[in-house]
Design brief:
Layout: E1 7-12, H1 22-28, H2 31-36, E2 38-43, H3 46-50, E3 60-64, H4 72-82, H5 88-99, E4 103-108, H6 113-127, E5 131-135, H7 147-159, E6 162-165, H8 168-178, E7 185-187, H9 194-206, E8 215-220, H10 225-228, H11 230-237, H12 240-243, E9 247-252, H13 258-267, E10 275-278, H14 284-289, E11 293-296, H15 305-312, E12 317-319, H16 325-328, E13 335-337, H17 343-355, H18 360-374, H19 378-393
Parallel strand pairs: 1-2, 1-4, 2-3, 4-5, 5-6, 6-7, 8-9, 8-11, 9-10, 11-12, 12-13
Helix pairs in contact: 5-6, 6-7, 9-15, 11-17
């Protein structure tokens, strides 16, 4: 071990902050965890500027991936020795030798990141450093490009001390893509802090769910219909029975397809007062305060953090059966679950919710209690820290 506290290196291959970072982000910002471990993040250079909060108190060190490649002279010597470009696994050994971690946590936004991670895992094995794979999202229709990439991803997973997935369905999708069960797979919690629970309690007191007047629908997700399914929601609401009902939809999140959503809104004849398209706002509590019912029409998910947040604010939800959605939303109790990822199934779930509007406040309270029991972070962080200590002590 490198010191009194285990030195944990978190590695991210993407520079865009979002739900795929929340698991490790909340861990390193937990004072109890920061006292127990020395955390470092290795990520693309742009990440620190996009999300400075984890590094504000100086307790988590940031390292840019581009700064830890072999220096030019060493790389030229290596090229001459091996007669080719320096393998990526050699670059990763240089990074690990520079940082000298006791444990590496690879934060994977999706299964595709596993192929990027293969040389890093090989370098960890060569250096005798244990590593975890923390898989944030496993697309249910995903398969690796060929047998060689599948075999490499399987070797990476089997070489990990732990493979953490944020929903049971994501674990099944990963094991299906690899063609075998993983004995080292475990569940992780993409949950909320006590501060979020406290903010949610205030919203529930001051801004209760409305059971009369126009229904205020909120879809809080990045503007990416291929994953988040906003087009399915607009299709469902365009049906004659919903056009005749009083509702206002807010699509909030920002992202890569704002203009597409604007065109889809216009194609259905919805104006900007009925379907609002808004960028993400830092104060999500204010967004939940103005909503009565959450809608997550996703085509694929890990365990959507915005859904956990909304439920912590006492809002029931209508969701599609992907990722961890139906672990969070229990039909008729904390919300309503579509039977499939289709326009028709989503519309049917919205209709079931609509006729049960009088029960929305009770469903919101049940949603809050469900999140408090299973998605509050104090106990998951305690378990993660115990696992970190165990794997560092047992380091080969």
């Amino acid at each position: 071990m490198s010191g009194a506290r285990p030195k944990v290196l978190v590695v991210s291959f993407i520079a865009v902050p979002g739900g795929a970072h929340n698991l490790w982000r909340h861990l390193v910002m937990d004072p109890a965890a920061a006292d127990a471990c020395e955390f470092n993040l290795l990520a693309p250079r742009a990440y620190r500027d996009a999300d400075p909060a984890p590094f504000a108190d100086g307790r988590t060190a940031f390292h840019a991936l581009t700064e830890l490649t072999p220096p030019p002279l060493r790389e030229r010597v290596l090229r001459r020795m091996i007669g080719a470009e320096v393998p990526e696994s050699v670059r990763w050994r240089t990074r690990l030798e520079s940082l000298r971690p006791d444990l590496v946590l690879f934060n994977l936004a999706g299964m595709g990141d596993m192929n990027w991670c293969v040389p890093a895992g090989e370098a960890c094995a060569a250096e005798g450093i244990p590593y975890w794979l923390v898989l944030q999202h496993a697309h249910e229709d995903y398969h690796f490009a060929d047998d060689d990439r599948t075999d490499a991803a399987l070797a990476l997973a089997r070489g990990a001390r732990r493979v953490l997935t944020v929903s049971r369905r994501n674990r099944r999708a990963l094991e299906r893509a690899l063609g075998t069960a993983l004995a080292n797979a475990e569940s992780a919690v993409n949950g909320v802090t006590q501060a979020t629970l406290d903010a949610g309690a205030r919203v529930m007191r001051q801004h209760p769910v409305h059971v009369k007047g126009p229904v205020r629908l909120l879809c809080l997700a990045r503007f990416d219909p291929a994953y988040k399914g906003q087009d399915l929601l607009l299709d469902a609401l365009a049906a004659p029975e919903f056009r005749q009902r009083e509702w206002v939809l807010t699509l909030m999140g920002g992202g890569t397809h704002a203009r597409l959503l604007e065109r889809l809104r216009a194609s259905h004849g919805f104006d900007a007062e009925r379907v609002r398209i808004l960028p993400h706002q830092a104060d999500v509590s204010a967004a939940f305060a103005e909503a009565d019912l959450l809608v997550f029409p996703s085509r694929s998910e890990g365990s959507p953090f915005a859904l956990v947040e909304g439920m912590a604010h006492g809002r029931p939800a209508v969701v599609t059966p992907v990722g961890g959605n139906d672990e969070l939303v229990i039909e008729g109790r904390t919300g309503w679950v579509a039977s499939a990822v289709t326009e028709e199934a989503l519309r049917a779930a919205l209709s079931r919710a609509w006729v049960a509007r009088a029960a929305w406040p009770a469903a919101g309270h049940a949603a809050r209690e469900h999140v408090e029991r299973g998605w509050s972070l104090a106990e998951p962080h305690r378990r993660m820290l115990a696992a970190i200590r165990e794997d560092v002590v047992n380091r080969r």
